[in-house]
């Protein structure tokens, strides 16, 4: 359901309806179950007078300035979509979404640092809140929340599989079936740190795929995730005998491309405040585009 919203300084203004505003319990139910405000945030607003009613409009203190929790990179991220609630940044291959070691923190070369640079350059006072991740050598869009409320709402959307991510991959060999679903649980590989494998006691994982075009040696495949397990597409395609080109970790060869041939091309979600359907397309990087021309 689409909903009017606007930023008024530190305040998020919405119109849940005059009848709801007049009755406190109905208003709380609307905030919790329709808008998706977590209980701890609602309690904090009530204690700090962070909720106000003006006629038929409700105001919530959502946009209070926060100290960014990452040092800015030297150059900002490429932004594919942005408003006051969220943004989508493009992650190139070879860049981590966020640092995992002190050395990465010090180098300031992750997407988190690049988004921090964008915030610094545009005057946004907010923490870095990614909603999902991509592997370091996978290119594509990454969704960020700019407030605690939009973070909570988008996190819930992820849990309910309401954020769609579509990928294109180049896999080795000619795929016989033009479309299909791989439903195979994924867990850690006990014999190889950092690697995943299909295993009976793994986490539920489902990947849908369509073959776009194919040759005897390579196939261009479009994949849609129903779940979001680590290395999911890479593991599933390897499991059915079609490792991604360039994916050495899962049996791919580097003769065509020097990283796994996987790109997030499309990200779709409903806006956390307004409910509008948003679809963001990420341009294909040159190495993937050149490889696709060979098919």
Which properties best describe this structure?
8 helices, 16 strands, PsdUridine_synth_RsuA/RluA, alpha+beta, 6-stranded antiparallel beta sheet, single chain, 295 residues, Pseudouridine synthase, elongated, 29% strand, 3 domains, 4-stranded antiparallel beta sheet, PsdUridine_synth_RluC/D, catalytic activity, acting on RNA
Description of the structure:
This protein folds into three domains: 57 residues, no CATH class; 96 residues, Pseudouridine synthase (2-Layer Sandwich); 100 residues, 2-Layer Sandwich (Pseudouridine synthase), CATH 3.30.2350. It is built from eight helices and 16 strands. The strands form four sheets. A six-stranded antiparallel sheet has the order 10-13-14-9-15-16, sandwiched between helices. A four-stranded antiparallel sheet has the order 1-2-4-3, with no helix packed on it. It is elongated and about 65 Å long. 35% of the residues are buried.
Strand and helix map with partners:
Elements: E1 5-8, E2 11-14, H1 18-22, H2 24-35, H3 39-47, E3 51-54, E4 57-61, E5 78-82, E6 86-91, H4 102-107, H5 111-122, E7 129-130, E8 140-145, H6 148-159, E9 164-172, E10 179-183, E11 186-188, E12 196-198, E13 206-214, E14 218-225, H7 232-239, E15 262-270, E16 277-281, H8 286-292
Antiparallel strand pairs: 1-2, 2-4, 3-4, 5-6, 6-8, 7-8, 9-14, 9-15, 10-13, 11-12, 13-14, 15-16
Family: Belongs to the pseudouridine synthase RluA family.
GO molecular function: catalytic activity, acting on RNA; pseudouridine synthase activity; RNA binding
Protein name: Pseudouridine synthase
